[in-house]
Amino acid sequence: MAKLLFVTDLYYQAKGARVYYEEDLFLTSQLRKDFQVVICHPKDTEMFEKDFDLIVFRNAGPVINFKDQYQSFRHRVVANQLKTYNSFNGKGDMDGKDYLIELTKNGFPVIPTINSLDDLKNLPDVETYIIKPKDGADSIGFEFVHKSELDTKIDANEKNMLVQPFINFEYEVSFYFIDKEFQYALYAPDKSKRWELKEYIPTKQDLQFAERFIEWNNLDWGIERVDACLTKEDQLLLVEHEDLNPYLSLSLLPPKVCDSFVETFKKSLIKALELSQHEKILIAK
């Protein structure tokens, strides 16, 4: 059996009453049927990572909580040719949120985003803006700011914060993919309760929207969650592209959908293992 180092923080307390550890305990219980699995906290990976065939980076919480360890881990992935799941060549949240600025510049359907007040003219003129750190997640550092206070909140020389217009959207919806293949979608009918989710049946246009970002990201393998909001003008806009450790809300899925996801996840892990082994052979040659 292949050996998996399953990286998660079983103690992380997420906002919105989400219980991350329950999801990962369920996933590891399913993976143990086909793999040897060891659970590891994200701060402790260095002492174990070379002894495993694949490092599965799951619900480790926002990396802002262990920023130095995460950057060191990313360095070792390259330096020691560690094999990870997801593959660490994504362009989304695994590298921070600079991609929102680039997508804005390139005309993608995304909430307009800047990181300098010099570019404020490129955003819609609204009364309220949202600021948040580039390496934040789970609403850490998230703040609503009146336009008259922006210059007191954003240092002209500090590029670590993002600025977005506040958008009064209808609801948020998330699209979940494994290896670029759509799995399911969930949405929050009550936008004030982001994590009270229900199954969402996407239209062809919805999937085309989400798949555009999946193709843009171009991971070798892994799970991705495309988070979007529907505006009052009936337009989907990207909120974030979570390609590091997306929470999956598996407990909210119908049993058949959940079972299908788990089986597809296992097949994807096997694919990653096989491709990793092929890479090792090529390197040896």
Describe the secondary structure blueprint for this structure.
Elements: E1 3-7, H1 20-31, E2 36-40, E3 54-57, H2 67-79, E4 84-85, H3 98-105, E5 128-133, E6 143-146, H4 150-153, E7 161-165, E8 171-178, E9 181-188, E10 198-199, H5 204-217, E11 223-230, E12 236-242, H6 255-284
Parallel strand pairs: 1-2, 1-3, 3-4
Antiparallel strand pairs: 5-6, 5-7, 8-9, 8-11, 9-10, 11-12
Structural write-up:
By secondary structure, this protein is of the alpha/beta class. The protein is 28% helix and 22% strand. It is built from six helices and twelve strands. It has helices at residues 20-31, 67-79, 98-105, 150-153, 204-217, 255-284, and strands at residues 3-7, 36-40, 54-57, 84-85, 128-133, 143-146, 161-165, 171-178, 181-188, 198-199, 223-230, 236-242. It has a five-stranded antiparallel β-sheet with strand order 10-9-8-11-12, with helices on both faces. A four-stranded parallel β-sheet has the order 2-1-3-4, covered by helices on one side. Helix 1 (20-31) links the parallel strand 1 (3-7) and strand 2 (36-40). The protein is globular and about 60 Å long.
Q: How does the helix and strand content classify structurally? A: alpha/beta
H and E string: EHEEHEHEEHEEEEHEEH
Radius of gyration: 19 Å
Summed over residues and divided by their number, the pLDDT gives a mean of 89
Q: Give the strand order, joined by hyphens, for the main sheet.
A: 10-9-8-11-12
- Give unreliable regions as ranges: 280-285
| Helical fraction | 25-40%
Number of strands: 12
The termini sit apart by 25 Å
So how many helices?
6
Tell me about the largest β-sheet. 5 strands, antiparallel
What is the global morphology? globular
